[in-house]
Amino acid sequence: MVRRAKPGDDHPLQRYRWWQLFSRSLFHLRLEGVTGAPEVWSVDVRHGGDSNGEVWALLYLDGRNQSRSRLPAAFRIPGGIVEVATSSYGLKRCHYVAEDGTTRMLVPDRASAEGRRARLDQSSPTLSRAIGVVSVVVLLIALVLGVPQIVEDITRIPPVADAVGTFVSPIQLPAWTNITLVVAALVASTERALRMRYNWILDGGLFDGDD
């Protein structure tokens, strides 16, 4: 469900700091304004949330706050809408949808984790593609090895066992292997989130609560 945006308070956009790499996403969109001069719209998301655990997206125009919204959000700006949504690993959407239906992703701030990943893609495309392939392979392995064990655990719950019986997984892995598998899947999904890649099976399924 898309949240209704609330008016901003005109506070200035804070500079991105290196220690915010995995706690903050910052994206920019340059458009031609009504006067013909370029305008820069920015979307700032702090993934830790507020005191109530709510994650907000803040919209800025030329560095001044215009509005804010809980996620998922849709900010109306001249010429279209900026759509913002998250997964458990970062942003899965931060796109400008123009009135003519064309869509483009906002540009990550150079100092952000997303910006650094984008620079790697530009400077070393072969390495970047290899990392992307490894991330997908890791998540596929996690699904194949993890799903049977999860199903077995679920069918051991007494009401479920009484209703459908107990399923015995053909795959039995030691605890340390399962922990390694979960950590590897988290790293792989985080890497994909830095590129705004999201698939509800690969990045949702086992380890993510989808929006």
From TrEMBL:
Annotated keywords: Membrane, Transmembrane, Transmembrane helix
TM region positions: 126-151, 171-188
Recorded superkingdom: Bacteria
Transmembrane recorded as keyword: yes
Protein name in the entry: Uncharacterized protein
